[in-house]
Specification:
about 475 residues; alpha+beta; Arc Repressor Mutant, subunit A; 3 domains; 3-stranded antiparallel β-sheet; 16 helices
Length: about 475
């Protein structure tokens, strides 16, 4: 039985962070009452004329530069013709051609663990308008919501033949790309709301052969997990078809999240079916080198470069740096806390452990939670100074997270200050050892592990407020006498 090699091309659509639509002044927002954000332009009514959104063009150019693309200094819009209920004009304004899209011939490096990175070539980054949204009505039948029609949409397409060869690489590519878009502030990346959508084009071929197999396009993937599951399922399905002597059909398939299977939606169209031609209502876009260079110099520090800097500047591990930069808000929070005086490794440890758990449980983000970078530094200073123990620190962080009260004020209000007075602790140590002579005897007989029991009893006797390190030292001193 032959082995098979996967080839996965990725088409990613990102709704751009603009206030208005691509060719009209209708506002952009998620949800809302259907068909309340539509006008003659985005509905394609006779006599209406489109006017391009300049900010949307800038956002796509910025992305193209960040993805190492060549920028088309002269670029035109095309009409992509097809008939579907969610396309009110009967065509979609898009871009066509090898060197006409705003960006082409780029690449993105994705992580490969200890093996470094893998380069995924990008064929084009182009600008188009989104379609409407079909809705299944409760009483039966379907409706169309045109609120989304005309929203600025950027499409990023990987090169051919594809460089991605597994479901894991497909997920890593999408995750890395989404993070870059967040850092660039060109898209909010909310897959569950449809502002970032991914359609993998999947094929398999026998190992050792060069001719690519017939591809299928997979839709309705609304999370990284779905992308991974969907690609894995489709690879298994295609291999099973070929092993049974069948032929894979070129088709568009949907993903059923509940059953975790793909299903046929329609036969896949070819480029000729769309009858592309330049849009006669829109003049060419022409750029100057100075504009592109200004965009290039204005790019923010991107995730991979930031992770490298964290390792070098803050001596963080590759893993810790990767966790911090994998979320734009998390990296911002970390850097602000460090600027306020927080020790980088300590800030990282709290952020990637208890703080991360609290955020996950609540659904908050670093920006929307009650905990601020100032709170984080305050908490770490209380722990490092010995004012509270690490265990108390967790209790204080929970209270700050719930109420927004600063850690210092939480400690004062709850009387959580750690006991560091040697004399006070020595009294408790003497009392505990006197109350447990049999445990002391076991220690004298060589059972050193019973010391932990005595330490615990002393800490309990102080209501958990005694400095654990000091208790350890004083108990050891008393036992050695």
């Amino acid at each position: 039985m032959p082995e098979y090699v996967a080839s996965i091309g990725m088409e990613v659509h990102a709704e751009l962070l603009t206030h208005s639509k691509m060719f009209c002044r209708c506002p952009v927002a998620f949800g809302g009452e259907p068909n309340t954000r539509a006008c003659p332009v985005c509905l394609g009514l006779p006599g209406s004329l489109p006017v391009p959104n300049h900010h949307a063009i800038e956002l796509v150019l910025k992305t193209a530069v960040a993805l190492n693309c060549t920028v088309a200094m002269r670029s035109v819009f095309h009409r992509k013709n097809y008939f579907y209920p969610d396309l009110p004009k009967g065509y979609q304004i898009s871009q066509y051609g090898e060197t006409n899209p705003l960006g082409y011939g780029g690449y993105l490096d994705i992580p490969r663990g200890k093996n470094g990175t893998k380069r995924v070539r990008i064929r084009r980054v182009h600008l188009e308008e989104d379609t409407g949204k079909l809705m299944h009505l409760p009483a039966g039948g379907s409706g169309v919501d045109y609120n989304r029609a005309g929203v600025p949409l950027m499409e990023i397409v990987t090169d051919f033949p594809p460089d991605i060869e597994s479901a894991e690489e497909a997920k890593d590519y999408l995750s890395t790309l989404r993070n870059i878009l967040l850092y660039l502030r060109v898209c909010d990346g909310k897959m569950e709301e449809g502002s970032l959508r991914c359609e993998p084009n999947i094929s398999v071929r026998p190992k050792g052969t060069e001719t690519l197999g017939t591809k299928t396009e997979l839709k309705n993937l609304n999370s990284f997990h779905s992308v991974h599951l969907g690609v894995e399922f489709e690879l298994r399905r295609q291999i099973a078809v070929l092993q049974e002597g069948g032929a894979v059909l070129q088709e568009t398939r949907g993903w059923n999240e509940q059953r975790e299977i793909s299903f046929v939606m329609r036969r896949k169209e070819t480029e000729n079916d769309y009858r592309y031609f330049p849009d006669p209502d829109l003049v060419p876009m022409v750029f100057e080198e100075r504009e592109i260079e200004d965009l290039r110099t204005g790019l923010p520090e991107l995730p991979m470069a930031k992770a490298g800097r964290y390792q070098k500047e803050f001596s963080l591990s590759e893993y810790d740096a990767g966790v911090l930069v994998s979320d734009f808000e998390r990296a911002q929070f970390f850097e602000e806390a460090v600027k306020l005086g927080g020790e980088p490794k300590q800030v990282c440890n709290v952020m990637t452990n208890q703080f991360a758990e609290l955020l996950k449980e609540s659904g908050d983000t670093p920006r929307t939670s009650n905990v601020t970078p100032t709170h984080m530094v305050d908490l770490l200073e209380l722990v490092s100074s010995g004012a509270i123990s690490s265990k108390m620190g967790k209790e204080v962080l929970q209270e700050t997270f719930d109420s927004g009260t600063s850690p210092s004020n939480v400690v004062k209000a709850k009387g959580l200050s750690q006991i560091t007075d040697t004399g006070e602790i020595q009294v408790k140590v003497s009392q505990i050892l006197a109350a447990h002579p049999e445990v002391v005897a076991k220690y004298k007989e060589g059972q050193a592990n019973v010391k932990g029991y005595l330490v615990g009893q002393v800490i309990r006797a102080t209501g958990g407020k005694a400095n654990p390190t000091l208790v350890q030292d004083l108990v050891q001193e008393a036992l050695d006498k």
